[in-house]
Structures are given as C-alpha cells and as structure tokens.
Design goal:
- The radius of gyration is 17 Å and the shape is globular.
- Strand 1 and strand 2 (about 25) form a beta hairpin.
- The strands form two sheets. It has an eight-stranded parallel β-barrel, surrounded by six helices. It has a two-stranded antiparallel ribbon with strand order 1-2.
- By secondary structure, the chain is α/β, with parallel strands linked by helices.
- The protein has a single domain, classed as Aldolase class I (TIM Barrel, Alpha-Beta Barrel).
- About 35% of the residues lie in helices and about 15% in strands.
- It binds phosphoenolpyruvate and manganese (II) ion.
- Manganese (II) ion (MN) binds near residues 206 and 243.
Length: about 270
C-alpha cells in the first residue's frame, strides 16, 4: 500500500489543531457531540449550550444531509451552517459539518472548522480533490462498503492535493448481519494507528444505529486506542428530524462521558 503522505513515520503523529487549544490526536480523548441535523436556530443553540456546560469543545450538526430517501428532511443547507456558527461563537465551540457537493466547499468553508466527508462520498474523487485544495481539517468517514485500503487511498487523494490535516472516522460497514445498522469495525482502530500517522475517531451512533449500543461502543473506542468519538445527541431524540433512534439524550450523554472517561483514564 503506497501511503506516501499519511503513512506512519517514526517522528511525527499528526495533531489536528483547531485553534483555541482544541486539538485532535494529542494524547487526549476528544468527544464530539451534536445532533444528526441542524433543525432550527433554537435547537442547535440549546444543544450547543449543553455541550459547553459539559466541556465538550466540538459541535457536530449536518446542514447538507445525505438522506437515503429524497423525501426525507434534506437539511437547512447554508442557513443551517449560519445557525451552527452563531451557536458555536456564543458557546466557544468548534464546528464539524458535512459537505456533499464540491460546488458548496468554497461558500461553506468559513462556517466550518472541520469538513466532514460522509460515508457515501468517501470515493467521490472530485469532492476529495476539492477539499484537498483548502487548508481546512477534514474528517474522512469510512465508506460503508470500503476496505481499509480503499479508505486510506481516499485519504491519500486529499493529502496529494496539499491538505494533510485529515482525521479518519470509523462509522461501521455493511455485513451480512442487519441487526445493527452497520457493523462497527473496532479492529480498524489499531490497524489504522499502526499504518498511519492520522488521528482516528469512532462514530458509535451510525456504527450501531441503536441508542443503547452507543455508550458501550464509546467505551470500546476508548479501550482500543481511538483518539475520540463523535456522538449524536439531542434533547428530544424522539422528535429529531433524522436519526432519532440512534441519538442519545442529555442524561445519557452525561453518563456516556463519565463512563468513557473512566475507561480511558484507567488504560492510558
Ligand atoms: C453523519 O455523520 O452525519 C452521517 C451522515 O454519517 P455517515 O456518512 O457515516 O453515514
Ligand atoms: Mn445521522
């Protein structure tokens, strides 16, 4: 495997520096939280306030949503990014949000601290090349049908354009078992840590699709050496406009943080 840019080298591990002392991959366990989708100004502001109080530094929220059905909620687009930025400024949070279309990169870039490339776009080479041209951190989620090699090659596409600020995110793959939404491939974490210098984040929300599995898989992520997790949280998951069944509420999020930190602290 030719990992010219992202391959492990002895001296350096890549630390993603988001400014204001918020970093991913610096011997810390980063917790990213937020709703699946930005639904309204009030919704994202309420969740941002909660995360701020819990000392979480990075807010997720989809504005451009890749929905399976064209009849499902498609996200608020640029308006959603503006709501995200307003809340993030108020509560001193960094923002991660997905971009679907290469034509949206330039106009969205000032609203986002980390550009998310979603599972469905992991091999959208036009999009990978476009985000590679900017000096903005990228979170590259694993394609639901992608091998580890295909995933790493996709990261090389971004790096080759000049942007090596890449975080890998394991979010589960499709297997014969459909009890869970995806099969969360925890082996990927130590494999990637061995092969590349990039930070690795686990998404236990999309990785399982089932609310009560989010906390156990978060603990597993801490135990196998992930650099952090990205979790869907909503004050009222039943009413969420997308992915409510895998979103946890504020009380569950608090428990998840406490338990995951315990595992992390006891191992590292
Ligand atoms: C998301 O994180 O908002 C998302 C759509 O995830 P994935 O691309 O992994 O399905
Ligand atoms: Mn989601």
């Amino acid at each position: 495997m030719n990992l010219k840019y992202i391959g492990k080298d002895k001296e350096s591990k890549r630390v993603i520096d988001l400014g204001d002392n918020v970093k991913i991959g610096n011997e810390n366990f980063t917790i990213i939280g937020g709703p699946c989708s930005v639904e309204s100004k009030e919704q994202i502001s309420k969740i941002a306030k909660f995360l701020f109080e819990k000392n979480v530094k990075i807010l997720r929220g989809g504005a451009f949503k890749p929905r399976t059905s064209p009849y499902s909620f498609q996200g608020l687009g640029l308006k959603g990014l503006k709501y995200l930025k307003d809340s993030a400024e108020k509560y001193q949070l960094k923002i991660i949000s997905e971009i679907l279309d290469p034509r949206d990169v330039e106009k969205s870039i000032d609203y986002i601290d980390i550009i998310q490339i979603g599972s469905r776009n992991m091999q959208n080479y036009a999009l990978l090349k476009e985000v590679g041209k900017f000096n903005k951190p990228i979170m590259l989620k694993r394609g639901m049908n992608a091998t580890i090699e295909e995933w790493l090659m996709a990261a090389e596409y971004i790096a080759l354009e000049g942007n090596e600020n890449i975080v890998l995110c394991e979010r589960g793959i499709r297997t014969f078992d459909n009890f869970t939404r995806n099969t969360l491939d925890m082996t990927a974490v130590p494999i990637l840590k061995g092969l590349t210098k990039l930070p690795v984040i686990v998404d236990p929300s999309h990785g399982t699709g089932i609310r009560h599995l989010v906390s156990p898989m978060s603990k597993a992520a801490a135990a196998v050496g992930a650099d952090g997790i990205m979790v869907e949280v909503h004050f009222n998951p039943e009413e969420a406009l997308s992915d409510g069944h895998q979103s946890i509420d504020f009380r569950e999020f608090q428990e998840l943080i406490d338990e995951t930190k315990k595992i992390y602290d006891c191992i590292y």
